[in-house]
Specification:
154 residues, mainly alpha, Non-ribosomal Peptide Synthetase Peptidyl Carrier Protein, Chain A, 2 domains
Length: 154
């Protein structure tokens, strides 16, 4: 059930808010210019947003930081290849992430596996080098899966 704006509803005559002035002052101007008791909260919101300049109407999506990479963890029963694909997709959203941070984030969120043990024994600080080693373990996982499939195992 949407609230409808009446045909005679007009945008209040106040200066457009462009983000460079005090928002609270703009809100006060809006409250003084609009007979708010005549409108529902939904209508007030729809009218209020029209008093914003185009740039102020667009909500900027917050950019992800390097810290967001530390949230990407390997899921139970997830193959290394699948986890690496998800991590790389997340890393693309953080173009400022440096090699060392990506390597640290990736290696800290791995499940206990042969690859994890390999990194524990011989840590890698550069993500490109980590990818090279991960590729070897991914190839091993693929070979093991193919062998199981050829024997009829799941």
């Amino acid at each position: 059930m949407a609230d409808e704006l009446s045909a005679n509803c007009r945008t209040p005559v106040i200066a457009e808010y462009d983000g460079t002035t005090d928002l609270m002052e703009h809100l006060s101007d809006f409250e003084n210019a609009v007979p708010l008791h005549l409108y529902t909260d939904r209508i007030k919101c729809r009218i209020f947003i029209t008093t914003f300049a185009r740039a102020a109407q667009q909500c900027q999506k917050l950019r992800k930081t390097e810290l967001s990479l530390f949230v990407v963890r390997q899921k139970d029963n997830e193959l290394l290849k699948e986890h690496l694909q998800r991590f790389n997709a997340a890393a693309l959203e953080v173009p400022s992430a440096i090699q060392e941070v990506k390597a640290s984030a990736f290696s800290q969120r791995l499940l206990d596996s042969n690859f994890f043990k390999s990194l524990a024994k011989k840590p890698i600080s550069k993500f490109d080098a980590l990818l090279a080693r991960a590729t070897k373990y991914i190839n091993m996982e693929d070979a093991q899966a193919a062998e199981k499939e050829s024997r009829g195992e799941k």
